[in-house]
Design goal:
With about 375 residues, the protein is α/β, with parallel strands linked by helices. About 45% of the residues are buried.
């Protein structure tokens, strides 16, 4: 039998979040074969049909995925439930998504969903069902050290998801199991195949936001904010020297670092370097004008430590696919942190997450408030 299925079990009852995809399905089956009492749960977060768009619902919103998750549970003899969290999801995640773009920032809804909605819902239902643990198919490791539970990067760095889980608090991490943390994606696909899930083992991955499955966030904003286009159209494109060079479609439809889709020709590559919602202004500049040396982070969640001394040396990531940059971290007013990079970084976007690492371990994370220099 596959070594992942023969690992020693800690025993206990575990609630497994099952989206119907390969990662969560394999996670549930690994735990089931290790002797855990598994309970599967699928969370319904969003009705895509309610928001319009031109693509079928995907991922956690797909009825086929619900059925796939339920079928896996039935085949292996453990219970499965569907948990409707559309109201909480919409009120918090979707409303925040809209509000952040209207504030000229670039949100990361997956971080907020994990932190404030999914894990809270999982823990609440786990308690109601008498489950000792919760588990997901995320690629991340967890361990206990010095009285704290620490998140670390996964073995498969190409799939590592520690960046999007920085907001999990200690009570969540302490009860979480991540069966895929020590596996490569190729191993997960092979295991799914070996367990008889041949089609699932070949299933393509989805990287869209679940409530924007057509990847058109601008269209989503237009459909969900009454009169948005009329309110914001016709603002100015302005160069960093103050020169007005054209009209844009409305500041919420642009993001820091954007180059394509500006519909403006200046004879050289040009990028969005700043967004000013108060005046409906989009500032444009050259690539070097996107670079910065430091930023301020707010909404800090401490993971490995409960705090740091000024001058803490770390690696900080400012986007999901970012490999990180060596930095020095200091404490700032209001419990915020200032991050000073050893080298300049590009496209610091307020609203995105900054995650601070010590080696592979997540020290803390928060939301980028502003670029300092």
């Amino acid at each position: 039998m596959n070594s992942y299925l023969c690992a020693m079990s800690r025993n206990g009852k575990v609630l497994v979040a099952m989206s119907g995809g390969i990662d969560s399905t394999v996670s549930a089956l690994i735990l089931h074969n290790q002797g855990y009492e598994v309970v599967g749960i699928t969370m319904k977060t969003w009705d895509y049909a309610s928001s319009g768009g031109n693509k079928k619902e995907t991922g956690c919103c797909n009825l086929d995925s619900f059925n796939d998750a339920r079928q896996a549970a039935v085949e292996h003899g453990f219970p499965h439930y569907v948990l409707d969290i559309r109201e909480e999801f919409g009120e918090f995640v979707v409303n925040n998504f809209i509000d952040e773009y209207l504030a000229g920032r670039t949100p990361n809804p997956c971080v907020l969903c994990n932190t404030h909605i999914k894990w809270a819902a999982l823990l609440k239902r786990a308690n109601a069902l008498g489950c000792d643990y919760i588990a997901t198919g995320h690629y991340v490791k967890v361990r206990e050290e010095n009285g704290r539970h620490v998140l670390s990067k996964a073995k498969d760095l190409t799939k590592d998801q520690s960046y999007v889980l920085w907001g999990l608090e200690q009570d969540c991490i302490s009860r979480s199991i991540y069966p895929l943390g020590d596996m490569h994606k190729t191993e997960v696909r092979q295991l799914a195949h070996d367990l008889g899930y041949v089609e699932l083992s070949k299933k393509a991955e989805s990287f869209e936001i679940c409530f924007v499955p057509d990847n058109d966030y601008r269209g989503f904003l237009k459909r969900n904010v009454d009169g948005l286009e009329q309110r914001v159209e016709g603002g100015n494109f302005v160069l960093t020297n103050g020169q007005i060079v054209g009209k844009h479609r409305g500041y919420p439809f642009y993001t820091i670092g954007q180059r394509k889709g500006l519909d403006i020709a200046l004879g050289r590559p040009i990028f969005v370097v700043k967004i000013i919602p108060e005046t409906n202004t989009v500032i444009l500049g050259e690539a070097h004008e996107l670079e910065g040396n430091s930023l301020e982070v707010s909404g800090i969640n401490w993971v490995k430590y409960s705090g740091i001394q000024d001058g803490f040396e770390a690696t900080t990531r400012i986007r999901y696919r970012d490999s990180g940059c060596i930095s020095t971290v200091t404490n700032a007013e209001g419990g915020n942190l200032n991050v000073h990079f050893e080298h300049t970084v590009s496209s610091i976007a307020p609203g995105q997450s900054a995650v601070i690492y010590e080696g592979d371990d997540v020290v803390a994370g928060g939301i980028i408030r502003r670029q300092l220099a």
